[in-house]
C-alpha cells in the first residue's frame, strides 16, 4: 500500500470515530434530555402534593364561621347571605351583626327569649324543662338579692328615731325602738302624721282562746279600743270568716278584757295592764312603755283569773251604779 492510501484509511477511521463520538454525544444529550424531562415530570408531582396539602388544610382547621352556619336557611333580613344566627325571641334568621340590629329595630325585638311563653304538652321537651328550672333559679336568686340589699334594709336614721321618741314623749308614751334586724323592727309600720299631728300605730291583736293573731296597720291614735275590735268580735259588723274563727268570743256571756303586757319586768314575772275599751288608743298608751308597737291581748273574762292584771278598769255598769249613788 502506498503512504497516501494509509493516510486516507486513517482519515476514514478518524471520521468514523468522530461519528461514533458524535453519536455518543447525541445519546448523552438524549439521556440528559430524558433526565431533564423526568425532572420536569417530577416537579409537577411535588406541586400537586402541595395543592393537596392546601386543599386538606381547611378540613383540619375549619373556620369558626362554618360551624355556626345554619344549613338550608337564608338571612331573613337581607335575603342573600347564609344564616349564621337565630334570634332567641322571634326565631328570625340573620347573617351578620348589622342584620341583627336591623331586625331588632324593624320588629322592636329585644333579642331576649320569652321565658314565660306558653308551650303545649306535645311540644314540651327536656330543653323546656331545663329552661323552666333555670327560670325558677333566677327568680330565687333575684329574691335573695333583694332580701340582702342593704339599701332596702337600711336602718332608720337616728334623727327619725329621735323624732318618733320625742313625739311619743309629748303624749306621755315611753316609746322604745329596737336596732335594725329584730323581727318587731322589721314588722313595725308605725309613723307620725305631721299634717294631723297624730300617730298611726301598727297594732297586733292576739286572741289566745281562739289561737288567732291579726295585724292592724295605720290605726289613728284617737280611735277607741272598741272601734279597733269591732271588725273582729262584733256579732253584726264583724267579717263572717273572722267571726267563725272567733266564735268563742262572740258567744261569750261574760265579755272580754283587753290587756297589754308590762314591759321591763323580771323574767319569770308576767304582768298586764288592763285597757279601757271606751278610751282612745292614745289615752290607753299614756304612762306606759311601748316597744316598737302595742300588742293587745283580747281574753275572755272567765279565762283571765290566772293572769296578774294591774290597774283594773271598772266596767261601765259599775261606773253608772257609782254615779247613781
UniProtKB/TrEMBL annotation:
<dbReference type="GO" id="GO:0000492">
    <property type="term" value="P:box C/D snoRNP assembly"/>
</dbReference>
<dbReference type="GO" id="GO:0000463">
    <property type="term" value="P:maturation of LSU-rRNA from tricistronic rRNA transcript (SSU-rRNA, 5.8S rRNA, LSU-rRNA)"/>
</dbReference>
<dbReference type="GO" id="GO:0005634">
    <property type="term" value="C:nucleus"/>
</dbReference>
<keyword id="KW-0690">Ribosome biogenesis</keyword>
<dbReference type="GO" id="GO:0070761">
    <property type="term" value="C:pre-snoRNP complex"/>
</dbReference>
<keyword id="KW-0832">Ubl conjugation</keyword>
<keyword id="KW-0862">Zinc</keyword>
<dbReference type="Pfam" id="PF04438">
    <property type="entry name" value="zf-HIT"/>
</dbReference>
<protein>
    <recommendedName>
        <fullName>Box C/D snoRNA protein 1</fullName>
    </recommendedName>
</protein>
<keyword id="KW-1017">Isopeptide bond</keyword>
<keyword id="KW-0863">Zinc-finger</keyword>
<dbReference type="GO" id="GO:0048254">
    <property type="term" value="P:snoRNA localization"/>
</dbReference>
<dbReference type="InterPro" id="IPR051639">
    <property type="entry name" value="BCD1"/>
</dbReference>
<dbReference type="InterPro" id="IPR057721">
    <property type="entry name" value="BCD1_alpha/beta"/>
</dbReference>
<keyword id="KW-0479">Metal-binding</keyword>
<dbReference type="Pfam" id="PF25790">
    <property type="entry name" value="BCD1"/>
</dbReference>
<dbReference type="InterPro" id="IPR007529">
    <property type="entry name" value="Znf_HIT"/>
</dbReference>
<feature type="domain" description="HIT-type">
    <location>
        <begin position="75"/>
        <end position="109"/>
    </location>
</feature>
<keyword id="KW-0597">Phosphoprotein</keyword>
<dbReference type="GO" id="GO:0008270">
    <property type="term" value="F:zinc ion binding"/>
</dbReference>
<comment type="function">
    <text>Required for box C/D snoRNAs accumulation involved in snoRNA processing, snoRNA transport to the nucleolus and ribosome biogenesis.</text>
</comment>
<comment type="subunit">
    <text>Interacts with FBL, SNU13, NOP58, NUFIP1, RUVBL1, RUVBL2 and TAF9. Interacts (via HIT-type zinc finger) with the RUVBL1/RUVBL2 complex in the presence of ADP.</text>
</comment>
<comment type="similarity">
    <text>Belongs to the BCD1 family.</text>
</comment>
Amino acid at each position: 500500500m502506498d503512504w497516501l492510501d494509509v493516510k486516507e484509511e486513517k482519515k476514514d477511521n478518524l471520521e468514523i470515530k468522530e461519528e461514533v463520538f458524535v453519536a455518543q454525544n447525541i445519546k448523552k444529550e438524549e439521556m440528559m434530555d430524558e433526565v431533564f424531562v423526568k425532572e420536569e415530570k417530577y416537579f409537577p408531582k411535588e406541586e400537586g402534593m402541595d395543592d393537596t396539602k392546601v386543599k386538606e388544610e381547611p378540613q383540619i382547621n375549619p373556620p369558626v364561621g362554618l360551624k355556626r352556619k345554619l344549613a338550608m336557611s337564608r338571612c331573613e333580613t337581607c335575603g342573600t347571605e347564609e344564616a349564621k344566627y337565630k334570634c332567641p325571641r322571634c326565631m328570625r334568621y340573620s347573617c351578620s351583626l348589622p342584620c341583627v340590629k336591623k331586625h331588632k329595630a324593624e320588629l322592636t325585638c329585644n333579642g331576649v327569649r320569652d321565658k314565660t311563653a306558653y308551650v303545649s304538652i306535645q311540644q314540651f321537651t327536656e330543653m323546656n324543662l331545663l329552661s323552666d328550672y333555670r327560670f325558677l333559679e333566677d327568680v330565687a336568686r333575684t329574691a335573695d338579692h333583694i332580701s340582702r340589699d342593704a339599701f332596702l334594709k337600711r336602718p332608720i336614721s337616728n334623727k327619725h328615731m329621735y323624732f318618733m321618741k320625742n313625739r311619743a314623749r309629748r303624749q306621755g308614751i315611753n316609746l322604745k325602738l329596737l336596732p335594725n334586724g329584730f323581727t318587731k323592727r322589721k314588722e313595725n309600720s308605725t309613723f307620725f302624721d305631721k299634717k294631723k299631728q297624730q300617730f298611726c300605730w301598727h297594732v297586733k291583736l292576739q286572741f289566745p282562746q281562739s289561737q288567732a293573731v291579726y295585724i292592724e296597720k295605720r290605726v289613728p291614735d284617737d280611735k277607741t279600743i272598741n272601734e279597733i275590735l269591732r271588725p273582729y268580735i262584733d256579732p253584726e259588723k264583724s267579717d263572717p270568716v273572722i267571726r267563725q274563727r272567733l266564735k268563742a268570743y262572740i258567744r261569750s256571756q261574760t265579755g272580754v278584757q283587753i290587756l297589754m303586757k308590762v314591759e321591763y319586768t323580771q323574767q319569770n314575772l308576767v304582768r298586764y295592764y288592763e285597757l279601757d275599751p271606751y278610751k282612745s288608743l292614745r289615752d290607753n298608751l299614756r304612762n306606759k312603755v311601748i316597744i316598737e308597737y302595742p300588742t293587745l291581748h283580747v281574753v275572755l273574762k272567765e279565762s283571765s283569773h290566772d293572769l296578774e292584771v294591774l290597774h283594773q278598769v271598772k266596767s261601765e255598769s259599775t261606773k253608772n251604779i257609782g254615779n247613781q249613788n
